[in-house]
Amino acid sequence: MKVRTALVGAIVAGVAVTQAGVAAAAPARGGHTPTRTAMEAAVRDGVPGVTATAVDRHGTWSATTGVGDLRTGAPRSAADRYRVGSITKTFVSTVLLQLEAEKRLSLDDTVDTWLPGVVHGNGNDGTRITVRQLLNHTSGIFNYTTDEDFVAAHFAKDGFFRHRYDTLTPQQLVAVAMAHEPDFAPGTSWNYSNTNYVLAGMVIEKVTGRSYASEIRDRIIKPLRLHATSLPGTRATVPGPHSRAYSKLADTTTGPTYDVTSLNPSMASSAGEMISDSADLDRFYSALLRGRLLPPRQLKEMKSTVAVDGAPNGGYGLGLLEETLSCGVRIWGHDGGIHGSTSVAVTTADGRHSLALNFDGDWTGNPEAVVEAEFCGTPPTARRAAPGVFGARR
């Protein structure tokens, strides 16, 4: 789920840099200096604060810059928990691929096989769309978070403050999409749609008889000991240590900044409700790419990508983004945005070099520059000519 608006603007004039959990070898080696520089550049661009944690062969390195609370000036923390938005999608896809490995469903099953009659009307036809097409965004189903009325009610200032604590069911979210014609015939193109993953969560529940949240907890969170990771459901607060989350609640980089930390994440459902921290996200993506969560055949399926419009250096698999950076390093992961929070979590193909980061604002900053800096060692001014995949989508 991505709710980010335009780029540029400024909130914080000064930059305060802190470090936590830095591996002993890191300062002498200086390998993360470009990453810190890119984080500081994001704060100069107007992001209130940034937190990031990287894991590589030298150990774990964490750094923060800027503030986590504009009212008190408290800095961000490496232990901050934050809403991860669409990073949730990789967890959902992993569960469905585990169910395929257990022969409890096929990715080539139609949506109607599991959710009869749910995808219908205005040219929508669940008998022609497969589970695989939900996971790689080739279904053609309209993205409910771009519906004008939904945007006005949940992302614009007046609507957000009226509806921030409303509970929305997955059926209601899908109904918003079904009021629109499909973007294209199934399998003929690609378009990012949060509706796909709301439906994917519903499929998990139909197959298992349990909520998708319960399946994620038992299959991923508990085995990997992701202690900072949770699926809040309708809970409006962020548990544990966390910074505030800020938004303009408008398609602008100027004007008032609002604290949007508290909200009912049911509006995101299985497309983007999760909360985590950088260390947990590094552990998850490293475990996934190293084959700890999926058998080889299912991991290969997850990594089979389709082209992403406007991003010639990347592709989208089954809930997993792939990108070749300017220096030739290939990374896998996902980005995510929800009110006041912009996140990226990526790892190399062997799962041995990972980075997870979060901006506590949703209207400015370039997370792609931080990724490039970490894996390529390039300063934020040395950006690729072609757009990257991570942090580029709404």
Strand order of the largest sheet: 1-3-2-15-14-13-12-11-10
Order of helices and strands, N to C?
A: EHHEEEHHEEHHHHHHEEEHHEEEEEEH
Task: Estimate the helix proportion, in percent.
Answer: 25-40%
The computed structural class is alpha+beta
The radius of gyration computed from the alpha-carbon positions, rounded to a whole number of angstroms, is 20 Å
Strand content: 15-25%
Give the overall average pLDDT. 90
Number of strands: 15
* Sheet with most strands: 9 strands, antiparallel
Query: Low-confidence stretches at least 5 residues in length (pLDDT < 50)?
Result: 2-30, 382-386
Shape: globular
Distance between the termini: 7 Å
The number of helical elements comes to 13
Features:
globular; disordered N terminus; 394 residues; 13 helices; alpha+beta
3D structure, described in words:
This protein is an alpha+beta fold and 394 residues long. It is built from 13 helices and 15 strands. The chain has helices at residues 25-29, 33-44, 88-101, 111-114, 131-135, 148-154, 157-163, 170-178, 194-208, 212-224, 278-289, 296-302, 367-376; strands at 17-19, 49-56, 59-66, 81-83, 120-121, 124-125, 246-247, 258-259, 275-277, 306-307, 314-316, 321-324, 330-338, 341-348, 354-359. It has a 9-stranded antiparallel β-sheet with strand order 1-3-2-15-14-13-12-11-10, sandwiched between helices. It has a two-stranded antiparallel ribbon with strand order 4-9. A two-stranded antiparallel ribbon has the order 5-6. A hairpin with a 2-residue loop joins strand 2 and strand 3. The N and C termini lie close together (7 Å).
